[in-house]
Design goal:
Layout lengths: L1 H17 L9 H7 L12 H7 L14 E4 L7 E4 L17 H11 L4 E2 L10 H14 L2 E6 L1 H6 L10 H14 L4 H5 L6 H16 L5 H10 L3 E6 L15 E3 L2 E8 L7 E3 L1 H11 L20 E5 L9 H16 L5 E6 L10 H10 L4 E6 L5 E2 L6 E5 L2 H13 L6
Parallel strand pairs: 4-5, 4-10, 5-6, 10-11, 11-13
Antiparallel strand pairs: 1-2, 3-12, 7-8, 7-9
Helix pairs in contact: 1-4, 5-14, 9-11, 10-14
């Protein structure tokens, strides 16, 4: 219950900040240069916490002004807000001290009413016509912003995170037998008293994604994007997108398994994790632990390193992290006048604030924007977007494969 309420609070907060997304987007680029500086080396702080830590003084910029201010939107695409007091939420916005009932009531009033999970989400179209529309929207778009989340990788076989299934046994079999983990993430959240054993498991996890071939849904998506102006926004840390595209066209806002950071965030640096992981795997052999001497260390403080990822550690939200948001923000603003398609693939209910909610608000804010979501479980679509968007509830791999075939057969008019 606590986790569900926390996710709701995060979602509500992101929705509140995003509701006025890009209404003053022309001011975003100056905001990058002139906005308040963030503390790069402090992990997992909220924006509010960072503001509270700033000393008061005449020379400090007041965040509550009438001037546009750049906000990170709790991990979502940065938004520009003209005065935080003008967001327009009810006065009883829940705080961390609010009761569960109050939080639930607020969530229902301010968020759920805006969503549509019905026949309207798919436009009332049968599957074949949904594929026709997807292919047509892709063909007619001037540019595409892809939001790729965990469902996209899972559709291609990267589904070992949450269950003790065949793919988990394939890559983590020794650990499944020894520790009885229920998926890769389960192992990350267990208590490990033996650090060499923990790093044996973590090295296996990282090596699995670092060395995985590009999965079929990504290849089909690549074919769909051929010849298009596009940008990739992803919460996936599994390096699939950067195996296909140059890093300047990909924003990895949840981190990347190819890099280490200091676990204590003593420095803003990140460094290569690929070669050390390869060496750990070789040294571990058929065992489940690495030599203690191979546990990666921070070159500055000597403490343990950790993968540069959000989710189960002190995620370093420093220079590299900010660069990811700057890339996608600049792309969106430079293309805001064009016919832009926001294509959401595989966003779940754990973190909709990173891709889904910003895409909804960008589509509402840009008059020529369109939105299509593909998900194997959920068909959420904001009611104001029913004329500008569609949600396809089907296997993502199948959808991308069918759309690719339609485009390659010249059936879209492209």
């Amino acid at each position: 219950m606590r986790n569900r309420l926390e996710r709701r609070r995060l979602t509500l907060r992101a929705a509140a900040l995003c509701i006025v997304l890009v209404l003053l987007c022309g001011c975003l680029l100056p905001a990058f240069a002139e906005g308040p500086e963030r503390t790069d080396s402090v992990p997992d702080q909220t924006w509010d916490e960072e503001i509270e830590d700033e000393p008061a003084g005449d020379e400090e910029e007041d965040i509550r002004t009438d001037e546009p201010v750049l906000l990170p939107a709790e991990g979502g695409i940065p938004v520009v807000v003209d005065g935080l007091d003008d967001i327009g939420l009810p006065d009883e916005t829940p705080t961390p001290d609010s009761g569960a009932v109050k939080a639930d009531e607020h969530f229902e009033r301010t968020y759920l009413f805006w969503l549509s999970e019905s026949d309207e989400a798919d436009g009332g179209l049968p599957y074949a016509e949904q594929i026709d529309r997807l292919a047509r929207e892709l063909a007619e778009a001037d540019c595409v912003v892809v939001g790729g989340a965990s469902g996209l990788s899972a559709a291609g076989g990267g589904d070992f995170y949450y269950a003790d299934n065949a793919s988990f046994r394939k890559y983590f079999g020794r650990f499944a037998e020894k520790y009885h983990f229920q998926g890769a993430f389960d192992g990350m959240f267990r208590q490990w008293d033996d650090r060499a054993a923990f790093w044996g498991y973590l090295a296996t996890f990282l090596h699995t994604t670092q060395t995985a071939p590009v999965r079929d849904p990504y290849l089909d998506l690549d074919a769909l994007l051929k010849g298009k102006d596009f940008f990739i926004l992803t919460t996936n840390q599994d390096t699939q997108f950067v195996k296909l595209y140059p890093e300047e066209t990909v924003a990895e806002i949840q981190g990347d398994h190819r890099f280490f950071q200091c676990a204590a965030c003593c420095t803003d640096e990140t460094w290569d994790a690929v070669k050390p992981v390869e060496e750990m795997i070789a040294a571990m052999g058929d065992g489940t632990a690495i030599p203690v001497s191979m546990i990666p260390r921070c070159p500055h403080c000597g403490g343990e390193a950790f993968p540069w990822v959000r989710g189960y550690g002190n995620f370093l939200q420093g220079r590299k992290y900010e660069e990811q948001y700057e890339k996608v923000s600049r792309y969106v603003l430079e293309h805001r006048e064009k016919k832009i398609l926001f294509l959401e693939l595989g966003v779940g209910r754990l973190t909709p604030m990173f891709i889904q909610e910003p895409f909804w608000n960008l589509t509402l804010a840009f008059p020529r924007a369109r939105y299509i979501a593909v998900n194997d479980r959920y068909g959420f679509l904001p009611k104001p977007l029913e004329d500008k968007g569609m949600a396809i509830v089907a296997d993502i791999a199948r959808v991308l494969r069918d759309a690719r075939e339609k485009l390659e057969n010249g059936e879209s008019g492209r």
